[in-house]
Amino acid sequence: MAQTESRLARMSRRAAITGAAMATMALAACGGGAKGAAEGDMAQGAAEGAKVTVVEYASVTCPHCAIWQENTYPAFKAKYVDTGKVRYIFRELPTPPVDAATAGFLVARCAGPDKYFDVVHQLMKTQQEMITTSPREWLLRTAQAAGLSEEQFNQCVTDKNAVAAMEKRVQAARAQGVTGTPAFYVNDTQVISPGGEGASLADLSAAIDAALAK
Q1: Helix, strand, coil percentages for the chain (3-state, nearest 5)
Q2: pTM over 0.70
Q3: C or N terminus of the chain, fewer CB within 10 Å?
Q4: Residue 1 confidence (pLDDT) above 60
Q5: What is the dihedral of CA 204, 207, 211, 214, to 10 degrees?
Q6: How many other C-beta atoms can be found within 10 angstroms of the C-beta atom of residue 2?
Q7: Domain ranges of the chain
Q8: CATH superfamily assigned to domain 2-17+27-213
Q9: pLDDT in tens, 169-179
C-alpha cells in the first residue's frame, strides 16, 4: 500500500506544481470567463449549443463545493438540467490536497461517462473519510464502488497521459481567470452569492431565467 501511495504522490507531483498556487486562494472564484466548450468537459442536460450554458468549476476536495452539491445541486438539476433548459458543464479544478483531488477526478473518468457524476458526488459527500482514513483508502473505496478493481484503480491514478490532460484543463481554467472553487458562470457571466458556498439557486435562477427569456 505504501508503494502505491508513493506512486500516487509521484504521479500527481506535476499536477500539484500546477495547482500549488491555489492553496492560498479564496474559495470563491473571481474574474475570468467560461464561454464555449473546452476539451474534457463533462456535461449534463441540454445538448451543446443550448441557449443557456451553466459552467461550474469545482474540486472533489473543496468543502464549499461539497456543500453546494449537497444543498443546491439537486434542486438546480431538477429545475434546469433534467428539464433540458440548460446545458450544465462541470470543469475540474483540483484544490488542496491537489494530489488527492487529481486522483479523484482520474477515478471518476476511469469509471466511465455514465458514472462520472456519481463518483464526483460520492467523493464530495465522503470528503471526511480522506482525513479519518487516508486519501488512498477513500479513493480506492469509491473506485471499487464504481466497479473498478484495485489493479484498475492503480493504473488509473498513475496514467501519465490522464495527468497531462488534467494539467491542460487546469491551465485553461487559470487562463480564463478562474482562481478558486466553486465558481459558476451563466453564459460567460459569473454568478456570485455571498457566503462562499457557491451561487445560490435564487441567484442562478435569476441569471438563467433572464437568459432564457432573451
Answers
A1: 55, 10, 35
A2: yes
A3: C
A4: no
A5: 140
A6: 7
A7: 2-17+27-213
A8: Glutaredoxin (3.40.30.10)
A9: 999 999 989 98
